[in-house]
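re: that chain from earlier
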Amino acid sequence: MTELRNRLRWPAIARILLFLLSVGAFLAGGNVAANYLIETQRERQLEEFGNIALRRSETAVFYGISTLRDFAQRGNIGCDGGALQSVRLFVYRSGAMKDIRIVRPDASVVCAAFSETLEFDKGWATRAEMLPSVGGASRLFRVEQFFGTALGAMIDVNSEYSLVGIMSVDGSLIDVMPSELRNQSVVALELDNGQTIARTASGAVVGDDTTIRLSTESERYPLRTVVRVDKAALAAWNRQPYMPIVLASGILGAFFGLLLARSLFRPMSPLEELDRAIALGHVRPYFQPIFDLRTGEITGAEVLARWIKPDGTVISPARFIELAEDSGRIADLTWQLLSTALAELRPLLTADKNFCLSVNISPPHFVSDGFIQKLRETTAAANVATRQITLELTERQSFEDPGLAAAVVAEARGYGYKVAIDDVGIGHSGLSQIQRLRADVLKIDKFFVDSVNLDASATAMIAMLVRLAREMGMRVIAEGIEEQAQVDALINCGIAYGQGYVVAPPLPQRAFLDLVASRAGGQPAQAATRAA
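^ sequence. v structure.
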C-alpha cells in the first residue's frame, strides 16, 4: 500500500516541480524581455526627444533666415539714418531677431539696427568661421556676448552687402524632457563644430561615465541636438510596462508548465484508452429491441456498443467506433461484443429459438480472411443456433470488391446465418448492391422513417423498398421509430417489424431482459413507450 502511494505521489510531485520550473523560467525570461523592451523603448523616446528639440531649433533658424530674406527683398539696405530706422522697425515687428546687422561679404560689420548691441559682443566670426547650410544659401555661427550666447545667421544680398541676424535661441526652446528626467538631464543645441548655442538649465552633475548621450544631426543646417541623461535616473524612468510583461510571462509559464506536465505525464491517448477498454471489457453490449409493429412483441435485438467508463459514464459509439475502424481495432471489438452478447442473452436465445440477435459488421471485417470460421467458432462456443444470428453490414464503408462480398454473404447464409443490409436508402446500399448481395433483411434508415408522415416521397420510397424486398424474399425492418404515428404509417406501407425508441432505447442486459419478460404476450408499441 505504501509503495502504491509512493507511485502515485511521485508523478504529482514531478508535475508540480515541472510547473514551478516552467513558471520560474518564464518569469526570468519575462524579466529579461521586459528590461530589453523598456530599454529599447527608452532609446526610441530619447531619440524622439532629440528630434523634437532639433525640429524646434530648425524652425527657429528657418524663421530667422526667412526674416532676413524678407528684409533683403525690400531693397532699402544701408547705414544712413532712414535705412537704419527701417531696420529697427523690421526687427520690432518680426520678433524673431534680437538685432540685424549689415556686414560686408567677408562678415565684417558695417552697422547694426541697434548699434549699442555691438558693445555686448565678446567676439565676432569671420566668414571662413561660419558654417554653411545645405546648399550654401545661409551660414550659421556662434555669437559670444557678455549676457550669454546667441545664434547668428548670415545671407548674402549683393556684392556690397550681406545681412546677419542675431537670433535669441535659449534653453527654453529645447526643454523637451519629461518632468521625471528634467533635473537629471541636459539638452544642448550645438553647431557642427561643437560650439554650444544653448542648453537647458540643470542641477545634475553629468559625465561620460554616468550618463547616456544621444546626438541628433540636422539635414538642413549645421546643427545638432545632444541629449545627456543620468543612467540611474533613466533606469528608474518609465517602468510601467515591466509588471504587465512579467505577469504575462508568468501566465505563459504556467500554461506551458501545464502542457509540459501533461505531455510528460500525459493521460492515455484516445486510442490507448480504447485498447485498454477493449482489453478490460469496458465496451459492453447494449440491446435495442426489434419488435412486431402490430403486436409490439419483441422478436429480436440489435447489439449496440457502449463504452462504460469506470466512473459509470456511458460513451456513445459515435465517439469511438470510427476510431476503432480506422485503427484496425474493429474486428477485436466486434468479436468481444458478440461473445459477450451471446453469453448474456444465451438463456433467452436457448428458450426462444425464433429470437434473433443482430450484430453490426464493417465491410472490411466481413470480407477479411477467416471471418466465417471465427464466426462459427464464436457461435458454437455459445451453443446458439446460427439462424438466430443476423449480420448487419454497416454503411460507414463500402465493399471494395462487391463480388467477394457476395461470395461471403452466400457462404454465411449457407451455414444458416442471416444477413441484413443496414441503412438502406442512404450511403452505399444502392439497388445494385441489394441485388448482388442477396441478403435476408433490409433495414430502412431512420431518415425515411422520420419523414414517413411528412413527405410523400419518403412514403413512396419506403413502399418501393417493401415491394423490392418481397420480390427478393427479404424481410424489412424500419429503424429509428419514435412515434406511434410512424408505426401506423409503416404498417400501411407493408412493414411488419421495427426498431426504435417508441419501444425502448438501447438497454443493458438486465433492463433488456426485464423488458422482454414484461412484453412476453405482446404489447402495442405506444403502450410500451409509456411503460419505458
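Residues 427 and 453 are 23 Å apart (CA to CA).
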